[in-house]
Specification:
single chain, eight-stranded parallel β-barrel
Length: 336
Amino acid sequence: MRAAIVGIAGPRLAEAEAALFRAQPPAGVILFARNIENPTQLRLLISALRDALPANAMLLVDQEGGRVARLRPPHWRAHPPAGIIGQVFEADTKAGLRAAWITGALIGADCAAAGFDVACAPVLDLRREGAHEVVGDRSFASAPLAVARLGRAFAAGLLAAGVQPVGKHAPGHGRAQVDSHLSLPVVDANDLAPDLLPFALNADLPWAMTAHILYKGWDAARPATLSPVVIGEVIRRRIGFEGVLVTDDLAMRALSGAPDELARAALAAGCDLALYCAGEFEPTAALLRTCPMLTPLAVARLAAAREIATRQCRALAPAALAAERDRLLRGEFGLA
């Protein structure tokens, strides 16, 4: 398999996409709102993807809760943003941790039932005053330890549902003054220890996602996704992350260059997987034709991630959990 996760164009797998995936199989496919209409349509799409992809390819979805959710009402549950859970935690630590775990478990139950292996959550970035709102309420809190504890609880809930979590965006997106979807954020600060702490305390998560941010104190020339220094010295060594490292979307405007060139650069810098979400056929085909195969180490990391989710999966009662979360968020604390 190629060391890439790619998107597709629409709610049905096109014949050309299926042929491409059989000829140059990616390690997985990620779905977005453009691909999801209702449970019946999604079931047929995922079945078609499974037919076209290798047996151990991953299906991913961006499903944090709040404004980042691809599975939405009326067909799927609504989930609160991380910031709301952080408010519960601030009022009552035990209740906040329980709300985080339940939300992870409910999101995981939705994702697992739909056929996904991986949910791109939780966000481990800090919420910082004056920073761009691209993170905002996607973050649990501004305090590093609170983010670390709530992120761990959320991830544990996902794993209880048998879904692999992705900690994002390493080594920390909270200081960004611009939206990396639109331009490249530059961070001048040298002391980033608080930003690293939630990632370091969750270094045993199965997956992490890089940030498209230029950290001048570490590498003044290359954003984290493309930097051997940030990936090798900061994410792998200082944070201690040993799991599957996937890039953020290479279609984002923080990066410049053709997607296939960016993919090769990110993999050469130390990422295990390149993520290209646009769903545009020609750039996707070019990327898959030239993308390196998964390294043996990446294969082992992917297998370990699957094993973690399998080992921690257990039977859940989603209706009872949803009622309990509703009491925690609305009944006791009056939060919407």
